[in-house]
């Protein structure tokens, strides 16, 4: 069940592979995400020293957050993957044109997980082609509905 999706990632990039990663979160962050107060549109994933981190993920704290905690909405959060998966991603990201993006946040057995996509950037003409294809599919469905 998806909590937040990054639709912009599919518009701007070709997603070649997807991985599921756990996220190290504080208690107030879990509550805020469950309330739907997270944003991953401008976020990206970086690999440093064999560990993965998500930058730019914004989680707006709830008003009822604890008084002894000073929430930082855009702090860097660690992602949890197996070492074999991280080493595989390091090899692919070091090649030209590849990047790692969060695609969505979802629940898996009650835990909040992030779907991470190995992506290659789209050129402007690729975006236009995708838009034309999407418009044509929509028009095809309208024509089929009208005839039936």
TrEMBL record:
Keyword Transmembrane helix listed:
no
Please tell me whether the keyword RNA-binding is annotated for this protein.
Answer: yes
Q: Which CDD domains match?
A: SmpB (cd09294)
**CC terms in the record's Gene Ontology section:** cytosol
Query: Where does it reside?
Result: Cytoplasm
The domain of life for this entry's organism is Bacteria
| Family matches, as InterPro entries | SmpB (IPR023620), SsrA-bd_prot (IPR000037), SsrA-bd_prot_CS (IPR020081)
Name a biological process GO annotation. Answer: trans-translation
Q: What are the UniProt keywords, alphabetically?
A: Cytoplasm, RNA-binding
UniProt-listed SUPFAM superfamilies: Small protein B (SmpB)
For this protein, what is any one GO molecular function term? RNA binding
Q: What does this protein do?
A: Required for rescue of stalled ribosomes mediated by trans-translation. Binds to transfer-messenger RNA (tmRNA), required for stable association of tmRNA with ribosomes. tmRNA and SmpB together mimic tRNA shape, replacing the anticodon stem-loop with SmpB. tmRNA is encoded by the ssrA gene; the 2 termini fold to resemble tRNA(Ala) and it encodes a 'tag peptide', a short internal open reading frame. During trans-translation Ala-aminoacylated tmRNA acts like a tRNA, entering the A-site of stalled ribosomes, displacing the stalled mRNA.
The text of the family note is: Belongs to the SmpB family.
Protein's recorded name: SsrA-binding protein
Record the organism: Rhodocyclus tenuis (Rhodospirillum tenue)
């Amino acid at each position: 069940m998806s909590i937040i999706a990054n639709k912009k990632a599919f518009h701007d990039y070709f997603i070649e592979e997807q991985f599921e990663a756990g996220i190290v979160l504080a208690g107030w962050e879990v509550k805020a995400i469950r309330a739907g107060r997270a944003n991953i549109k401008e976020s990206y994933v970086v690999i440093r020293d064999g560990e993965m981190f998500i930058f730019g993920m914004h989680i707006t704290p709830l008003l009822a957050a604890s008084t002894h905690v000073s929430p930082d909405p855009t702090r860097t959060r660690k992602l949890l993957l197996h070492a074999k998966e991280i080493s595989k991603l390091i090899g692919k990201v070091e090649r030209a044109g590849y990047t790692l993006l969060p695609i969505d946040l979802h629940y898996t057995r009650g835990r909040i997980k992030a779907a991470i996509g190995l992506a290659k950037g789209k050129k402007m003409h690729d975006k236009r082609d995708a838009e034309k294809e999407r418009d044509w599919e929509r028009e095809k469905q309208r024509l089929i509905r009208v005839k039936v």
